[in-house]
Design goal:
Structural class of chain A: alpha+beta
CATH class of the largest domain in chain A: Alpha Beta
Strand order of the largest sheet of chain A: 1-5-6-12-11-10-7-9-8
CATH superfamily of the largest domain in chain A: Bira Bifunctional Protein, Domain 2
CATH architecture of the largest domain in chain A: 2-Layer Sandwich
Mean pLDDT of chain A: 92
CATH topology of the largest domain in chain A: BirA Bifunctional Protein, domain 2
Radius of gyration of chain A: 27 Å
Helix content of chain A: 25-40%
Number of strands of chain A: 19
Strand content of chain A: 15-25%
Largest interface: A-B, 92 and 92 residues
Low-confidence stretches of chain A: 448-456
Number of helices of chain A: 15
Oligomer: homodimer
Shape of chain A: elongated
Distance between the termini of chain A: 38 Å
Chain lengths: 456, 456
C-alpha cells in the first residue's frame, strides 16, 4: 500500500474534526428526538430510473456495477442516492402498510453527487434530514414546524447566526401566472439563477427563454427583490398590482410561516422571495439557510413541501422536510477555525503503568472507572512517568492515574490533573472527575472565555 | 414513482427495527468510548487497485462511474469499500503526520460487497470496528484487549450468549512448516473450508493442492479439531509431536489471549484451532464469534492482528482489530424475534389538541416538556380525544397530555398514562415521567418479565 491518492470531493476529518462533527450529529439527533422524530435509514442505492424521474439532477448520479460482473448479466441500473428525500418517499410507498401516518422521521446519512468539487460542495457528504409525511393530506402547520425545529437545532450549536430564508411555490407560481407567464417552471428556473448571474442576465432569460413581456419580466424581478423579517412583504407584493388566487394563498401561507416561526424563535426566519430551490418537486413552502458572514458558501439547510413525490397513482403521501448540510457546515466551522474541541480522544483518564508486571493493577483501576461511566485508557507501555504524562498531554487527556503499587512508598492511588499539576489521593471505586471533563467539550473558538456549549 | 423494487441484499428496517439497531450502535459507541477509542469515519470509496492488493476479495467490489461521464474521461478507478480495515490502514498512512500513536479508533459505517445475498450475508451492511495501530511495533497485550472489549460489548446487549473463537496465525503457520508444508497459505485456505465442505474433502485438498503427505494432512486436520476454553489446548497440540519455533510462539500468545480474556470476562473466549479467516493480511491472533444457537449464520464478530497492512515500505504501522457485524446481528435478532422495543417513536408524551384555535397552548406545553429533556409531539389534528389517545396507543407513546383549556371545566392540565388509564393533574413546568419511560426500551423478547437492558 505505497501510493496514497487524496480524492478531491471526498473529505475526511482528523480526530478533532470528527469530535466537532459528532457533536453536531448528536445535537441534531437530540433536537429531532425531543420533537418526536423517529430515526430511519434507507439503503444507499436506488434504481436509477427512480432517481431521474424528478428534477434535473440525473447527471450527478454515481452508477454502480460489480467489478467482475459477467458481461451478459442484466444491468441492475443502481446508483448511489443523491439526497435523502427521494429515497424516503420511495421507502414510504414501499412500507406504507407497516407505517403509522403522519410519520415524522429523521435520517442522518451520507449522500453522493458526481459534481465538480468546490468550496462547500462535495462528492460525498452527510445530511441530517427531518420530514413529516401524511396520508392523503398534510396539515399546513407542519410547514411552520420545519422552520422551528431547524431554528432550534441551529440555535443549539456553537456557530455563527443562521437565518432561514423562506419562500412559497404557490406565491411564485400564482404571481407568474398573474403576469401572464405560460411556462412558470421556466420563469422559476431563471429566477433561481439571480445569485449566480445577476438580475440583468436573468431579465434576458425571462424575456427570451421564458417568453415574458418586458413588463412581466420586470415584475418577476421586483418580486424576487422583496425580503422581510415579518409579514410586511405581503403589502410589498400587493404594491406590484398582480392579482391571482394561488398568489393570495401563497402570500397567506408564507406570512403564517414567518410570523409563526419568529414567534417561537425570534429573528430566525425571513421571507425572501427570490428563494427558488432547483429541484422541481416542491409545491408549497421552500427553505434555504444562510450562515451570516459565510453566505458565499451557499445554503446550509434547505427543504420544502412536496405533495406529489410519494405517490403511486392511487394513494399519495404529501410531505414537508428540511435538511441540514452537515458536511458543508463542518467544513466552514473547521476551515475557518470557528469551533474547537477540548480533546480528540474520549478518555478522561490515562491510567499509568509502572512496569509490565503491574499492568493488571492498572487494568483493574480502568475497569473500576469504566463501571462508573468514566472513559479511560491504560498506558500502552510502561515508560517513565514523565513520558506517560506527555502521552496524556498530547491527546488532551486531563487526568493521569497512578496506582499505589506503581509508586514507591505510596499507600494509596493518586490522580494528577495535568493542567494544574495538582495531585491528590484517590479511590478508583469512588473518584469522580467534574462533569465538564467527562467528555470532549466543543465550543466556539472565537469566544474561548465562555465555553457555553457542552458536549452531550 | 409508481414502481417499487425490493432489492435483495440491501436490507431496510422498519421503525421498531431501527430502534433495536440504534440501541446496538449506541451501546457499541458507549463501550468503545469507555475504553478510550476515538471515533473516525473514512470516505466510502477507495481506489480499486488499493483494495485489490490484499486478499482475494476483488470480485466482490462495486465500481463507480458517473452516469454522464464523458467517454474520454479517464476512469478514476473508484469502488465502494468492502470493509473498514483496509480504508483505515490507508487513512493511517495518509494522515500519519497528524495522528498520535498508538491510535485507538472505532469506526461505524456501511460497507458494500457484490456477493450473492443469502442468510446473514448482505450487499450493504453496517460494521462497528475497533482497531489499535502503533508506529513500528505494537504491544502484544492489545491482542488480549480486542477480545475483552468485544466481550464487554456483547455482554452489554440483550442477545443470546456469544463465544469468541480465537486462533493464531503464527501457531498455524509454524505447525504447517513443522509438518513439512511449503505452501502454508494453501494449507490455510484448505483448512478455512472445513465448515463448508467437511474434513474429508479438505484432506483431499491438502494432499492434492497444498502438496502435503497423508501424514502431514492428518496432523493439520487433527490440529484444526482442537478447541478448548482454556490453555489446555497447548498440551493437546504438543501431543501431535510437531516442533517449530513459530508454533511455540503462537501457542504461547494464544494461551495468553484465552486466559487473559477469560480472567476478565469468564467464558467469553475459547481457543479454536480451525479458525482461519479468509483474508490474508493477518499475522497473529485471529478472532471469530458464534452466537450460541445461531452458529449457521456465521461469525458475528471477526478480526485479527495485521503487521504489514499499513506500510509504505519505509514506515509500518502494525495493528489489531475486531469488527461487530451489526447488520448480521440485527437480522438474527429481528428475524428470530429475539429482541423487542417498547415503542418506535422517541415521544414519551403526546400533547392533545382540543381545537385548532388552542393549538398554540398545546405547542407551549410541548416546549416546556422539551426544555426539560422530555421527548414529545403535538397531535397533528384536533380530533376527538378518543382518537388522539388511539393515535398515541398505536405508536406506543405512554402518556397523553390534556392542556387545561382543552377540557371544559378543568382548571389545570392533566396527564393520562394510557397503559393504566390513570389520569392526574400535572404542571408542564415540573412533571417528570419515570426514567424508564423517557426513551424506548429495548429488551430480550424471550424474557419479558425481566426488562434487564434499558435503552441508553
Amino acid at each position: 500500500m505505497a501510493k496514497i491518492n487524496r480524492l478531491s470531493g471526498f473529505p475526511e476529518l482528523l480526530p478533532t474534526g470528527r469530535v466537532i462533527e459528532q457533536y453536531i450529529l448528536d445535537t441534531a439527533r437530540q433536537v429531532f428526538e425531543l420533537h418526536g422524530y423517529l430515526s430511519l435509514e434507507t439503503r444507499a442505492v436506488e434504481p436509477i430510473d427512480m432517481m431521474t424521474r424528478n428534477g434535473e439532477i440525473d447527471k450527478e448520479i454515481y452508477v454502480l456495477r460489480r467489478l467482475h460482473a459477467a458481461t451478459e448479466e442484466a444491468d441492475p441500473g443502481l446508483g448511489l442516492h443523491f439526497d435523502l428525500t427521494v429515497p424516503f418517499a420511495r421507502y414510504v410507498l414501499e412500507y406504507a402498510a407497516a407505517l403509522e401516518f403522519p410519520l415524522r422521521r429523521y435520517q442522518i446519512q451520507k449522500v453522493w453527487r458526481g459534481e465538480r468539487p468546490q468550496e462547500g460542495r462535495f462528492r460525498e457528504f452527510t445530511q441530517a434530514d427531518i420530514d413529516v409525511v401524511a396520508k392523503d393530506s398534510l396539515a399546513f402547520h407542519h410547514e411552520v414546524e420545519m422552520a422551528v425545529v431547524m431554528a432550534s437545532l441551529l440555535a443549539s450549536l456553537p456557530i455563527p447566526r443562521a437565518i432561514i430564508q423562506v419562500n412559497n411555490r404557490k406565491l411564485a407560481e400564482g404571481f407568474y401566472l398573474g403576469v401572464g407567464a405560460t411556462d412558470t417552471q421556466g420563469v422559476l428556473r431563471a429566477i433561481d439563477k439571480i445569485d449566480k448571474i445577476g438580475p440583468e442576465r436573468v431579465r434576458v432569460l425571462l424575456e427570451t427563454e421564458a417568453g415574458l413581456t418586458p413588463e412581466a419580466a420586470a415584475k418577476c424581478l421586483a418580486l424576487a427583490a422583496i425580503s422581510a423579517p415579518d409579514a410586511t412583504f405581503v403589502d410589498q407584493v400587493a404594491a406590484l398590482g398582480v392579482r391571482n388566487d394561488l398568489l393570495d394563498q401563497g402570500l397567506s401561507e408564507l406570512a403564517v410561516v414567518v410570523t409563526g416561526a419568529n414567534a417561537e424563535r425570534p429573528g430566525s426566519v425571513v421571507a425572501d422571495l427570490k428563494v427558488a430551490r432547483g429541484l422541481d418537486y416542491y409545491t408549497g413552502t421552500v427553505y434555504e439557510t444562510q450562515l451570516v458572514g459565510f453566505e458565499s458558501v451557499g445554503s446550509i439547510s434547505s427543504g420544502g413541501r412536496y405533495d406529489d413525490l410519494a405517490s403511486d397513482g392511487k394513494q399519495s403521501y404529501p410531505g414537508v422536510g428540511i435538511s441540514l448540510g452537515v458536511s458543508r457546515l463542518v467544513a466552514i466551522l473547521i476551515g475557518k477555525n470557528l469551533v474547537s474541541a477540548s480533546r480528540a480522544v474520549p478518555s478522561a483518564v490515562l491510567v499509568a503503568v509502572a512496569d509490565n508486571a503491574s499492568r493488571p493493577e492498572s487494568e483493574k483501576v480502568a475497569r473500576q472507572l469504566r463501571a462508573r461511566g468514566i472513559p479511560c485508557e491504560v498506558a500502552p507501555t510502561a515508560d517513565k512517568f514523565g513520558k506517560q504524562i506527555r502521552f496524556a498531554d498530547r491527546r488532551g487527556i486531563p487526568y493521569v492515574w497512578f496506582p499505589a503499587t506503581a509508586v514507591d512508598s505510596a499507600d494509596e492511588d493518586t490522580v494528577k490533573d495535568i493542567r494544574s499539576g495538582d495531585q491528590v489521593g484517590a479511590d478508583a471505586a469512588s473518584w469522580q472527575p467534574p462533569v465538564a471533563d467527562m467528555k470532549p467539550r466543543v465550543f466556539a473558538t472565537t469566544d474561548k472565555s465562555i465555553v457555553s456549549k457542552e458536549s452531550l
